[in-house]
Structures are given as structure tokens and as C-alpha cells.
């Protein structure tokens, strides 16, 4: 007597009928999908890095504009001192803030230069004036280092050399 329970079951071979497809994915399909997905994620990562770099640059530009406008307001409040040839407001890049200001103009200059150094990367400022006839002008310049984020080789060289190309500048002209 033969027991049918111990006999192997028939293995069903895949159909050769083109209308019936096998279920699942092949290893090649999965690998191609992973490669395509990897390139997509690398592109998104690059966009994120550029986005952060642009956000930092925009923030620095906004701070520089705000600080230049702040100094313009201070000068507008004290115009006679600002237009003299020996004005206490005048400063060049790399000037140190006055250590113990004795006037409103020197105090304004001290507060402004300290704010530039604190709020901008390598922040610095310059104030010049010119008076010719009825044209009375004060020029306020704010500059800061642009060496943040992703840089090209030329930008990186300029940053390590600390050249003028490594800095961004905002110029604010005030006519009194």
C-alpha cells in the first residue's frame, strides 16, 4: 500500500503565457532603483547646503543694512558734528572703537563699531563726509567677510588671503 501523504507535491512551473507575469522584483530592478534614488538624494542635499549658505548671506546683508541705517539715524540727530572736517564720526576700516567716549558722536561711533564686530563676521565700518557748496554728504560703508558656506576655488583663495574680494560691502549715502 502506498501512502499518498509522503509523496512530494507537484511543483508548479511558471506559465509561459505572456499575459501572466511573475510577482515581485528582481535584484537588478532593486539596484537600479537604489542608484536613481541615491542621485536624487545627493541633489537634494546639495540644494539644502546652498539654501543654508544663501540664508546666512541674506541675514548678514540685512544686518549690515540695519547697522548702516542705525548710524545714519545717529548722524541725522547730530548733523553739525557730522559735517565738520574733523568730525568725531569719521572712521576708516580697522579703526578701533574709542575706549572712553567723551561726546555723543564718539559714543555713537563706539556703539556702532562694537555692534559691527559683534553681529557680522569680521564686521567693520567706515564713515566719510564731503561738503562742497550746498552738497553735504556723509557716506557710511559696512563690510563683512563673505567666507561662509560653499565657496568656489577662487573665493576660497580670496578668503585665505583676506583680500578685498573676500568682503561684501553695503554703502549708505546720507545727504544733509
Task: Kindly list the characteristics that best describe this protein.
single chain; 16% strand; rod-shaped
Structure in words:
With 176 residues, the chain is of the alpha+beta class. The chain has one domain (26-175). Helix content is 45%, strand content 16%. It is built from four helices and three strands. A three-stranded antiparallel sheet has the order 1-2-3, covered by helices on one side. A hairpin with a 2-residue loop joins strand 1 and strand 2. Helix 1 (27-76) runs antiparallel to helix 3 (104-119). The termini are far apart.
Task: Itemize the secondary structure elements and their pairings.
Blueprint: H1 27-76, H2 79-82, H3 104-119, E1 124-132, E2 135-145, H4 153-161, E3 167-175
Antiparallel strand pairs: 1-2, 2-3
Strand order of the largest sheet: 1-2-3
The arrangement of helices and strands along the chain is: HHHEEHE
State mean pLDDT (0 to 100 scale). Answer: 82
Kindly state the percentage of residues in helix.
Answer: 40-55%
Distance N to C terminus: 119 Å
Q: DSSP helix count?
A: 4
Count of discrete domains = 1
Multimeric state: single chain
Q: State which percent range the strand residues make up.
A: 15-25%
* Largest beta-sheet details: 3 strands, antiparallel
State the shape. Answer: rod-shaped
Tell me how many strands there are: 3
Class from secondary-structure proportions? alpha+beta
Uncertain spans: none
The radius of gyration computed from the alpha-carbon positions, rounded to a whole number of angstroms, is 34 Å
